[in-house]
Fold these 4 entries.
Entry 1:
Amino acid sequence: MRAAKETKQLVDQHFTKYETSRIIGSRALQISMNAPILLALKKDELEALHYDSLKIAELEFRSGILPITVKRPFPQLKEREEEKKEEQEIVVKDRKEQVDISDLEPADEEEQEATAETEEKGMGV
């Protein structure tokens, strides 16, 4: 009994409760789809578990023999992504500043009058 508690503590130290439930649930699904059971269980032990795939998966998980891993993102990757976004924003600002106002063509008097009229209509004047 003591060994089981130590094993449970070791396993739980490496995974969050969400990861644990996801791993056990995934393994239970595999077992229910006729995947081989990784523990050497006798027929009477399986009958005691009522052939419940969730209980079998939990036994496998607690024994530590499941070949399932969890990939966690590292904080450094998030920092690098933020740095890339900042660099892209700087490049966009630089490009906007490079646009010279003298390159823009002045609008004709007719175009200016047309825009003034549409603005007046939009304001309800």
Note: The helical segments are 2-14, 17-32, 43-48, 53-63, 75-98, 109-123.
Entry 2:
Amino acid sequence: MNKFAWLMLTVLSMVSALIQPWITAVFLALNVLTVTLYYLDKRAAINGAGRISEKTLQLCALLGGWPAALLGQHHFRHKTQKIPFIRLLWCCIVVNIAVISAAGYVYFDWTTVQMS
């Protein structure tokens, strides 16, 4: 799973850099934010401090931070036993990929029409 997350982070960054460079910056910033939230939540869990809500972690994954969410889960060994959380995370991943694929299809179809 860890290799898959690194591969997807690399591929998506390279592809988005070819399309629109600002998308890469947003994508990388969101992934840095997501892995930071996983780290902070793990530290809070260990120290018994206030936690980051699961909704916040899932929202970051849904918006595109899912490669970092997978990396954070694996690296920090955080949220790996909560089956409902894992199922929802994978739903967020599928929805994110579907939306990005549909947007890419519409974008490239529209640019093709514009060039004709």
Note: Residues 2-115 form one domain.
Entry 3:
Amino acid sequence: MYSLLLKSALSCVGESNLLSTAAAFIAKHKLLANLFLLLDYTSFLTSGVSALKVVIIAVGGGLAVLGVVNLLEGYGNDNPGAKSQGMKQFMAGAGVMLIGALLVPKLSDLIPTTL
């Protein structure tokens, strides 16, 4: 496994002597290699899941607000088409917000905490 780690680290850094030396040093020391991979891997994916959750909830909230505006505009102008479109947009936005709040955090359960 560590020879594979060394090969992949050396292929990633390319021709740079300083980076290849650092990658070879980390790959040869098992404790450093495990610690480096574990910290980088889990922290990156955990922050990615939380950022994805925020973005999806924000998009769903924007869609829901746009739906409410269209719904109120439809009631104000007595336009059944605008009311229908507004209700559809509001419900779609609420659904996207629920997906962001309930399902996206479950992605962190799929990420293994140890390698």
Note: Residues 30-77 form the longest helix (48 residues).
Entry 4:
Amino acid sequence: MAGNRKKEIDPARLKELAGLGLTQKEMAGVLGMSEETFYLRLREKPELTEWIQQGKAEAASEVSNALFQLCLKGNLGAIIWYEKTRRGIRDTVEIDVSKLSDDEIRGRLQQMVKEISRTGEVS
């Protein structure tokens, strides 16, 4: 019976889908199978998980290289993104204000605004 035929996963296609950034749920849909069947195939053939990891790694490498090339060409947005991600710089500052009075909060905020105006960042 055709309905009982076991659906196989083409490793090259799986790698391609992973490289496009699809989730495993999305990969299952594109491959025309249920999530349950997809995960069953991954358990049956652990090497398929390696194909997924390789696809993701190769895509990340290509994107990283493209970003780096933009940086070398002087693209300011790319440079800012690159530096922030590589150095772990964040645009947010967390302050525990639960034990501060309104005046103390205002004072801290004013200090931060002055520091940002002077240095471009908050320490």
Note: The chain has two domains: 2-89, 93-123.
